[in-house]
Amino acid sequence: MLIFTGAGISTGSGIPDFRGPNGVWNRRQPVYFNDFMTSEAARIEHWDYKLEGWRAFRDARPNHVHHAIVRLERAGKLRGVITQNIDGLHTLAGTSTEKLVELHGTNALVECQTCGWRGAPERHFDSFRRTRKPPLCDCGGFLKPATISFGQNLDPNVLARAQEAALDADLVIALGSTLSVYPAASFPLLAAERGAPYIIINRGATEHDELGCVTLRLDGEVGAIFPSAVNAALSREA
C-alpha cells in the first residue's frame, strides 16, 4: 500500500497544523524563496520564522500513527510513504529511507543553496539566536533549513520517486491531509485513477471527498482510527 500523510497525523506529537487555528500560517506569512536568495532582511525573517518552531520540531516524538506505518513496513505491506510533513517524525519512528518520500523537505537538516551540502541544524540555529546573522556554508553560500519554501521548485528526483510509488501501489490511504496542496495531492489520485482502492481518513473535509475514485471516507482523528485498524488487520493475518 501507499500511505500519503499530512499535518493531521503530527498534531498528536504536539506539532500544530500549519493552517490550523494554532498554525504558524495564522501568525506570520512565510518568506518566499526568491526573497530569501536576494535579501538579507528576508533571510533574517526566514531564520526567525524557523527558529520560532525549532524547539517544538526538535523535541517532538512519533506517535501511534507513525509507529503503525512502521508496523506495516515491517510486515511487508508498504510500497511507500509520501508525506507533506517536514517534521522528520516518519524517520524517527523507523520508516526506511527507501520507502519515504518527503515532498516538502525536512526540518531535521539545513542545506546550502550553492553547493548542496546538508547537515545537522542545531548549531546553526544556536548561532542565529546569538548573532541574528543568517548562517553561511563553508563555501560562502546561504544555509537554509532543508524545506521547500514558497516559490521554490520541488526536487524533480523526489517527484519522480513519488510518481513511481503511486504507479506501483495496490492500495492508497491518505491520512490527516485536506488534500488541497498540489502537486502533493495528485499522487493519491494517480494511484486511485489506476484502479487502486482509495481510503481517506481526516478530521474535516478534504478536496477529494466527492471524487468517484474514493473507495472509503472516514471522518475523525487519524490517531483514533488508523493504528487500531492496522493492529486488527495484522492480527488477522497472524
Q: How many separate domains?
A: 1
Oligomer kind? single chain
- How is the CATH topology named? Rossmann fold
From the alpha carbons, calculate the radius of gyration and give it in angstroms.
Answer: 18 Å
Summarize the main sheet. 6 strands, parallel
How many beta-strand segments?
Answer: 9
CATH architecture term: 3-Layer(aba) Sandwich
Helix content: 25-40%
Distance between the termini: 18 Å
Order of helices and strands: EHHHEHEEEHEHEHEEH
- For this structure, what is the CATH homologous superfamily? TPP-binding domain
Which residue ranges are poorly predicted, with pLDDT under 50 across at least 5 consecutive positions?
A: none
- Order of the strands making up the biggest sheet: 3-2-1-7-8-9
* CATH domain class name: Alpha Beta
How does this structure look, described?
- The longest helix is centred in the first third of the chain and has 20 residues, at 40-59.
- The strands form two sheets. The protein has a six-stranded parallel beta sheet, with helices on both faces. Strands 5-4-6 form a three-stranded antiparallel beta sheet, covered by helices on one side.
- The protein has a single domain, classed as Rossmann fold (3-Layer(aba) Sandwich).
- Helix 4 links the parallel strand 2 (80-83) and strand 3.
- The protein starts with a strand and ends with a helix.
- The protein has helices at residues 33-38, 40-59, 64-74, 89-93, 122-131, 156-168, 186-192, 222-237, and strands at 2-5, 80-83, 100-102, 105-112, 118-119, 143-147, 172-175, 198-202, 216-219.
- With 238 residues, it is of the alpha/beta class.
- Helix 3 (64-74) packs parallel to helix 8 and helix 6 (156-168) runs parallel beside helix 7.
